[in-house]
Amino acid sequence: RFSPASMDSYFGGRFLALCVGAGLLHFRSRGSQSDNTTNEFKEFQRKYAIVYMFVVCADWLQGPYVYALYDHYKFTQQQIGVLFIVGFGSSAIFGTFVGSLADKYG
Fold first, then answer.
1. What distance, in Å, lies between the first and last C-alpha atoms of the chain?
2. In Å, what is the CA distance from 35 to each residue of 19, 26, 43, 45?
3. Mean pLDDT across the stretch 76-93?
4. What are 6-35's pLDDT values in tens digits?
5. Is the pLDDT of residue 36 over 90?
6. CA–CA gap between residue 87 and residue 69 (Å, rounded)
């Protein structure tokens, strides 16, 4: 059985390795792309990324409160776990193709 400290260092190390790998891939591919985007479009991308970051952070902040809400309504820990798994699973399954359908059909 793993202790919480060893699990933290295990996942922290994996996360750090993934971040370094992603950074290396990003900088490696940067030089191979031709940069023909306008400054106006780059400004739009920057503004979009900032707003998107705040929206994602707000979504992450609601997580503990959703759990507390389920707990308040007397859901068991197992039921709450199933609700979270079904939610994340449906996002993973439907999110892969619903976005492209929305782009194609509006």
1. 50
2. 24, 15, 14, 14
3. 92
4. 777 888 889 999 999 999 998 887 765 566
5. no
6. 16
Q: What angle do CA 83, 88, 93 make, to 5 degrees?
A: 125
CA nearest to 84, candidates 98, 64, 56: 64
The amino acid sitting at 28 is R
Joined together, the tokens standing for residue 38 give 């306008």
User: What distance in Å separates the CA atoms of residue 27 and residue 11, rounded to the nearest whole number?
Assistant: 24
- Give the burial class of 75: count Cβ atoms within 10 A of its Cβ; 0-12 exposed, 13-18 middle, 19 or more buried: middle
Q: What is the model's pLDDT at position 61? A: 87
Please name the residue that has the structure tokens 């998107």. 52
Please tell me the chain's helix, strand, coil percentages from 3-state DSSP, rounded to the nearest 5: 85, 0, 15
Tokens of 94: 């439907």
